[in-house]
Amino acid sequence: MQTIFFVGCLLHDIMKMLNGPNWLKLGSKFQNLLSLHFSSVLLPTSIFVCVAFWLMYAYDREIVYPKIVDTYVPYWLNHGMHTVILPLILGELFTTRHKFPSILASLSLFMAFVICYGIVFLETYVEKGRWVYPLFGMHSVPVALGIMLALIVKQVIFLFVGIAIQNIYWGKEETKRYRKPAVKKSN
């Protein structure tokens, strides 16, 4: 996901260099699409993946990344999937001012992503008879679904953390610009 986003950023920069800042108005539309994806999906999931994975790994690695996986997935790739994503996304957050959408739009896109991921996650369990992460296999299906729901709530919290970081670092001018001006009442 992050790789696709950063390739999109590279393409956007190339478009700006070759064709000016807003060639056929594609540049601004593409930038808005990148910002929407960044703020609604990438930022909260990157924070969540890095924090949740390493906390569970420190507690008991067998519940998220059993030792047997080391024979198939090199250690550096594990860090590429679970560590490097956070500094890259935070670097993007602090170097590029993104136009964050409304909370409702962010939550809608985020929930669409969560539903798609959940379908794939549950389909894997139904087809293979085992969970992607051993943590879920340690519990009954209703408890596993409860854990999944709790993790989704944590991701929503990280969505708001990302919005707060954006507003603290870049200020709130982006949202102020779209407010309707106050109308004075005449006597």
Automatic annotation (TrEMBL):
Keywords of the record: Membrane, Transmembrane, Transmembrane helix
Gene Ontology CC: one annotated term: endomembrane system
Catalytic reaction(s) noted: 12-octadecanoyloxy-octadecanoate + H2O = 12-hydroxyoctadecanoate + octadecanoate + H(+); 9-hexadecanoyloxy-octadecanoate + H2O = 9-hydroxy-octadecanoate + hexadecanoate + H(+); 13-(9Z-octadecenoyloxy)-octadecanoate + H2O = 13-hydroxy-octadecanoate + (9Z)-octadecenoate + H(+); 9-octadecanoyloxy-octadecanoate + H2O = 9-hydroxy-octadecanoate + octadecanoate + H(+)
Residues spanning the membrane: 33-56, 76-95, 102-122, 142-170
Subcellular location: Endomembrane system
Major subcellular site: membrane
UniProt keyword Transmembrane, yes or no: yes
Topology in membrane: Multi-pass membrane protein
Pfam families per UniProt: Far-17a_AIG1
Keyword check for Repeat: no
Domain of life: Eukaryota
Family recorded in the similarity comment: Belongs to the AIG1 family.
Name listed for the protein in its UniProt record: FAR-17a/AIG1-like protein
Organism: Cinara cedri
